[in-house]
User: Fold this.
Amino acid sequence: MTQIGIGIIGGGYMGKAHAVAMGAVAAVFDTALRPSLEVVCTTTEKGAAYKARQFGFKKSTADWRNLIDDPSVQAIVIASPQDTHCEIALAAFARGKHVLCEKPLGLGLEQSRAMVAAAEKSNCINMVGFNYIRTPASQLARQIIAGGEIGEITFLRAEHTEDFLSDASLPGDWRTEGRANGNMGDLAPHIINAALALVGPITSLVADIATVHKTRGGIPVTNDDQSALLCRFANGAMGQLFISRIATGRKMGYAYEIYGTKGSIRFDQEDQNALWLYRADGSQDRRGFAKILTGPLHPDYKPFCLGPGHGTGYQDQIIIEARDFVQSIHEGKSRWPTFRDGMLVNQIIEAGWRSHEGRCWVEISDV
Assistant:
């Protein structure tokens, strides 16, 4: 049994999720490397000490530099605000530490390119935290598409829609300040990553981006609420993406429909343990979408549960992500999605902004 020391920067929602995942991954997947929770970092010494007790870390600090310099830490999870991602990642790679960074990769394309360069120069394992695409159902969708079961892909319609900012009477906060914290910086990366994973590279797009609520509780809003993108994929398929943080009634609307020449697929994260599959074969009067409930025969389900249809949850996605990270370190080779994959997502987001501002189609290769 070989242990690897883990340091987590950030003790909030995602910091906790990663701490729980690192504490559970060896038991769930029997990984060759067994994570050891060494150091947690939050903004105050008192808060960090509390999180260390809560999550089970051996040490705590209020200075992320101390965490990176600690010899007991070999791998780092960056779960702090995105304006800290670049500086922390560059420092970690300079010290030869492996890095799992929450999305998005820095504040934008320029920072993500610098992070990719540092990661690849260091030869350290690097990964970006796109967890939703790791559900057993979405992994199954990728298998079905790759196996040609629904033929050549012709069209993708996808969305990431939530309503946590649908009430404009509530006061604005950090989420409503600055472009990087807006809808395109916060929600768009997840569904763009899904589109790339399911259909392949995007070659061009046109985008419309809107700030629907100009003020919130009397406070000016300085970023976007929703966006719509039309895109073309390298394989010739067409695509439509809708992203919104004001989609009233939607809680986790990470959803997609994919049409092919032999069938189609539907998925909705609000029912994350089901995949709908249509096959264009057999008698016309017997055709229809079939609901596939995930179970032990599907990717990464059995380690959690032996009962078909019993389901996996959000935290399980983070545990699968932790498995990929520690296994990558064991094998000495980064797994998808790497920092470069995260940079490609940022490239598409930047193209979206250029399209919106120029009222035109944009070639991704020009960004």
Observations:
- The chain has ten helices and 17 strands.
- The longest strand covers residues 33-41.
